[in-house]
Amino acid sequence: MASIPDESKCQYVYLGKSGLRVSNICLGAMTFGESSMGNPGQLDEAGSHAVINRFVEWGGNFIDTANVYGRGNSEKIVGSWLAGQERDRFVVATKVRFPMDMSNPNAAGLGRRHIIESVEQSLKRLKTDYIDLLQTHIWDDAVPLEETLTTLNDLVRSGKVRYVGASNVTGWQLQKIVDLNKQLGFNPYISLQQQYSLVCRESELEPFQVCKLDGMGVLPWSPLKGGFLTGKVKREEKPKEGRLGWSTQSGSINMQSAPSWAALNKDSNWTTLDTVEKIAKAKGKSVAQVSLRWLLQKSVVSSVIIGATKMHQLDDNMGAASGWTLTEDEMKQLDEASKPEIPYPYEMIWRMNATRNNPWNPTGYV
């Protein structure tokens, strides 16, 4: 494989207002190991390790997984690779919340018992004695937030977890987490892992505003929307390959992590893609690189989570990390082309505050 120029390698940024520095591109490990969901193109251990090694050549130091990915298979693969490395050179994130054993009613959720048990098992699978970033995978209506936050704080104090973050929450939920952590004097969340891309910008309305005000770094997942933002998908042609092809052919499936063709085949999305393709052609970059670079230049974003099952996919995505930028005008073109309809009262508030810019009070549209 080709060598990588230093100027093209990852930049290192702070994860939110914490002192933790991560590569501006994070390697997502959802494609590692056999999947319980039947996702196509999953990598075996050898293939996964090869992808991680190439990611490291690009300067990557940040790997994101979850206990539920392959019911532990992803963590095991990351762990077998990590065991042969200098542990303190890498930042490993995992998650807790989803069911790990469908026959056990206590093997899910954000209660004390399940969180502690999950962390103990994740540590074993990852072959490490600490988790750099533990993220609550989604909100849990069944458990008092005090129980969740107390447990997470105890894990940080014990040294088994270094930092905590959230994933897949609404604005009011994230604000409640922030406020209660402050009220109880607990360690704050430093990050929010949320779906974010040129065709999924809803979190700009509320969650990212909380991140801006409290110094949490955003970690976008599905930045290419299942392959839609790679330029390989064409109008009037249902995709047949990749994850988007799999979800389309599955018929009834329409999950956020595997969107259906009907959910994406909209004029507004094609307009966005046309703009990305125009800019990519002018800059001599791929459509995927421009899509990722748009995210990397958003002020709330710390690191963008990518996934790859083929080495050429990884190399292409990593080409967005450094060495070039989108101009202010190109960012504006992409913002305008992909801008969702802004509902009341957001549109009214932002319109009336368009000239009320105060750098010491960072509110307003992302």
Automatic annotation (TrEMBL):
Gene3D superfamilies recorded for this chain?
A: NADP-dependent oxidoreductase domain
The cellular component terms of Gene Ontology attached to this UniProt record, alphabetical and capped at eight, are:
cytosol
Q: Which residues form the NADP-dependent oxidoreductase domain?
A: 24-338
InterPro entries tied to this protein: AKR_Detox_Biosynth, NAD(P)_OxRdtase_dom_sf, NADP_OxRdtase_dom
Source species of the chain: Littorina saxatilis
Q: Which domain of life is it from?
A: Eukaryota
Record key words, sorted: Oxidoreductase
- Name one molecular function that GO assigns to this entry: oxidoreductase activity
Q: Does the keyword Plastid apply?
A: no
Q: What is this protein called?
A: NADP-dependent oxidoreductase domain-containing protein
- The family this protein is said to belong to: Belongs to the aldo/keto reductase family. Aldo/keto reductase 2 subfamily.
Q: Does the keyword Oxidoreductase apply?
A: yes
